[in-house]
Amino acid sequence: MTLSAETMTKGAFAAHIGVSAGRISQYIAEGKIYGDALEGDGRSAKIRPAIARQQLQKTLEPSQRFGANGVAVLKSAAQPALQLAPSDGASAPPPRLTFTDDVADQLAAERLRQQQITTARLEREEALEVGRYMRTDDARRQKVRAVSEAFKVMEQGIPEMAKAFAAQFGVPMHDATHALLKAFREVRAKKAAAFRSSADELPEHIEDEQP
């Protein structure tokens, strides 16, 4: 699919102009892509690339606009230029540094950095909404809850196990129940401590290998 296509998905258009899909959603939310450049609404909206690119040329900061190949470019900050005396030995003022960096470009670069931070935050929030990520605290709570429920189910089954144990070995039901409960609770305490330690070691963040 090329920029001459009638419509593109947000992801395809983002790939062609060299930004993230989240950045395209941000452009739409900020009104930098609008009107005839959109087909449909919400997540399913598609982009009319020719119109969208024209709009972005007008609505983006100069340092965020697109080069001839359609990819977003950021103007590099100018480096200090060193002016040297002529090599023919003629008298000349001593060398001096002339700074040509543009304050406007620096401000544009800072605005771009802030927008990138905002886009990254929006992408993380979207990933949480669709269930791709899970907060570490939530994972710990769910792990502890699942283990607790499993222990509860096993403890509720002890009377039935004690009944079978008493019948098979000819011991009083009360003694069989007491012995099984004591052994189970000792095992439960040890395992619960191990599970708590495992939950505490769960890292705050893990590497996401998905693109």
Plain-language structure description:
The chain is mainly alpha-helical and 211 residues long. Among the domains are: 10-64; 136-200, no CATH class. The chain contains 7 helices and 4 strands, in the order H-H-E-E-H-E-E-H-H-H-H. Strands 1-2 form a two-stranded antiparallel sheet. A two-stranded antiparallel ribbon has the order 3-4. A hairpin with a 6-residue loop joins strand 1 (38-39) and strand 2 (46-47). Helix 1 (10-17) crosses helix 2 and helix 5 runs antiparallel to helix 7. It is elongated.
Radius of gyration: 33 Å
Q: Which class best fits the helix and strand makeup?
A: mainly alpha
Measured as a percent range, the helix fraction is 40-55%
Strand order, biggest sheet? 1-2
Q: Note the beta-strand portion.
A: under 5%
- Multimer state: single chain
Low-confidence stretches: 73-87
Broad shape:
elongated
Mean pLDDT, all residues: 76
Number of DSSP-assigned strands = 4
User: SSE order in H/E notation?
Assistant: HHEEHEEHHHH
Please tag this protein with its features:
single chain, 211 residues, mainly alpha, two-stranded antiparallel ribbon, 5% strand
In a nutshell, what does this entry contain?
The chain is 55% helix and 5% strand. By secondary structure, the chain is mainly alpha-helical.
Helix-strand blueprint:
Layout: H1 10-17, H2 21-29, E1 38-39, E2 46-47, H3 49-59, E3 81-83, E4 96-98, H4 103-129, H5 136-156, H6 158-169, H7 173-200
Antiparallel strand pairs: 1-2, 3-4
Helix pairs in contact: 1-2, 5-7, 6-7
